[in-house]
Structures
1.
Amino acid sequence: MGSKVADLLYWKDTRTSGAVFTGLMASLLCLLHFSIVSVAAHLALLGLCATISLRVYCKVLQALHRGDGANPFQAYLDMDLTLTREQTERLSQQIATFVVSTATQLRHFFLVEDLVDSLKLALLFYILTFVGAVFNGLTLVILGVVALFTVPLLYRQHQAQIDQYVGLVTNQLSHLKAKIRAKIPGTGSKAKAE
């Protein structure tokens, strides 16, 4: 699955990547102008019209004695969608593990188990208030989809230059971090212990 996603984002098959990108962008742009209920209803109606049309076409071919009239979706109708007891237990355990780990992290941050981590989260939320004032969530999702389909390709084409600049920024940040730790009392010993 991971290699399929990578192939999609690196545009190995331009038709597939283009179709997925166009579909995502069209859906997101529709959501900018219409409610999610309306978009979901229209997409469901479009899918239903396509399947009904195909089924009626097969019946017409049967009436003209040019086909057997079998349901073209019979293979999908015959698929067994039930879960075994083991699959159900594994899935419920995965969901429970995710819920417990999320609750543990939220407790860690919001009940201030570590003051520095809670302050970092507070700073992140403070920055997000400014981002939220400029962009709505759907605009950020659209920008994210565009970045998802362009940044990996750009990085692959200009990897040497990007790595050089990232190295410079990382180096400067580590120097700045060392200076800050040296200035703040009590963090110098923590930095040495790390």
2.
Amino acid sequence: MVDQKKLPRYIYLPPDAVKRQAELIRNGEYDILPDEILWRDRYTTFLERGYRLRPRYHPDWRPSWTGTNLNPEFCEDAVVSDNPDVLDATRESDGLRVAMKAVKKGGQEILISQFLSSLQDRSNHCVPIVDAFQDPLDPSRMIMVMEYLRPWDDPELVMVGDVVDFVTQMLEGLEFIHNQRVAHRDIAPQNVMMDGRTLYPRGHHPVWRDRSPDAIEDLVPLARMDHPVKYYYIDFGLSVRFAPGQSPLVVGDVGRDAEVPELSSTVPYDAFKADIYALGNFFDKELAQVGTKYHRLEFLQTIINSMKQRQPATRPMASQLVAAFRETRRSLDPSEFRWRLAPKSEPAYERLFNDTVAVAKNSISQLRRFVRPE
């Protein structure tokens, strides 16, 4: 048994449950999964390269709760990765959390990702690549090491200002990509992430993102308005980099967003204009929903409509969108940025109550920024 003075009582199991857990361990219920074996087999090579995988992937791993009364739901090494193609790790030299992904050697994903990541620019919102090396078990693949990121909406956006900042960064990032003669071709919610470290100053678990690094405590994130995050485009597996002067016309019914109207496997279309539509559709579905999802986001509709023109030639370029949204942002009252995002489905009486609570919490948060304890 472990020392119960060091950990909260709720992580321990009653005696009958301990017996059941022991039986489950004997029956292999917690054995490493088939998708995880490839990562376990690379553990030693990664460590030699300077990257340490979580204890679960050590070749000699055994469940840490074996022979204890610990509940595995609060044991870090019980956590299975939610994406078998990408795994988190820690860089030994400085403790930086990274994400590792096996990609095709010499393929466009790693070439374009490394190219964009190498460019130093404030408007660069492409996933940072920190390393790349030969896959130790597959000569046809490379291991691409990226800075660890979390989904753009986890935790969810809660204030109008959160949306303004998100849209601003996404438009600036797309302008940057297009200025490098690169078309993403797969813009969708799954391919936008953020560096959320400012929201969790004590860290968080890489898979159970609302838990502490040891997976024991539930965490409450800080407010984005007071602790800004940076958003990034990821996954350049379908991207194309055009040579100077080369036509941006492509073919291919590709990408997660099948609603881009011009997609075709036979008729060429402008890849840059397709990106514009996909990002506009992203804004529409995730934020505006043609005015049916949230209150107070009506200012987005004009720019979304321009991005979702069915005729590609009538859609603005990314640089024009950045300039247009800059003007929209100037027209907004900054005091409105801290208004809560209220769902349209929320009844009026409930919205009034929630708005009042949000204002009170925000006022307390603002006061704490200026008052220091004695």
3.
Amino acid sequence: MGNRNDERRVGAKARNRRFESQVVVVTGASAGVGRAVAVAFGREGWRVALIARGRERLESAAREVEEAGGTALAIPADVADAGAIDAAAAQVVAAWGRIDVWINNAMASVFGPVTSLSPDEVRRVTEVTYLGQVHGTLAALHHMRKRDEGTIVQIGSALSYRSIPLQSAYCAAKFAVRGFTDSLRSELHHEGSRIRITMLQLPAVDTPQFDWVRSHLPQQLQPVPPIHAPEAVAEAIVQAVRTAPREMWIGSPTIQAILGTMVAPGLLDRMMARQAWEGQMTGRPAQPRDGNLFEPPPGDPGADGRFGSRARERVMSVSGTTARGILAAVALGCVAGAVTAAWHLGAKGNEPDRRRLSDRERAARMVS
């Protein structure tokens, strides 16, 4: 028995060493969710390549990964530049031999009504939030195909399904990522590839972006409540990397928004017109600003924004397949209930006719 336990411990240690030596690339890793994810992998002992534009924040995030127990490689690059992302992927492989996980997290947005946006603003949001994920995916595939192994993670949002006012360019880009990912997933299935691809739909998160994103609005910005801590969301992302479901919905607001859109999209249109419009502003006055759309902002705020006192420290997650299955079961239950009720009502409606027929039969027998 003792030898068997020793073998199990040795086997567990070997598996842990293999897991800890894995390589993950995180784009948008210098702040917000991306930074929290990079540090979370650092705590797991991973080798973490961090890609972002702001060199000061990038180097600070890399130090934080090292302090957490990981090995960091900081690579300044703009995800909108396909050549730069290809070069970054090659640098990671040259340093560590492979890429096990690639997380496409970088994003950009602009707040304002559609009529306030310029073509250049829409183009830039699209280049970063949509094409940035395409560039990262293609760079990862180039190296993962050589080993026929790896996991690509697309960081989406509840807004990948449920658009809201004042962020039309960002919502459109997230919808595009979902379409691109679904097509690629089918192609990988067709090839019989062992490369896994998963899309994670996030809720509102307390990140610094609301203090530096480009805005045409007259008030300070905020995530649409309820707000979640980036560290809690990062832990959910790490767990999703292990299992790589087709899709993961993180946070109860995400689940509610997606299922609500499937069931009653018109109702949510009207709700968003009121709640999401006001919910993205704090009520405190502010001046429109250029923000970080074209240039990285100065400073190093870290992963968290200014809403920590309101941020939820825990977050629930469910796979999209499971959530859809539950919705289908509920819908089938409602249909079955309606059919049963209709059958009973019909049966009751027929009972008086049967009674009247019996009365006639008895009367006829009495006459005869």
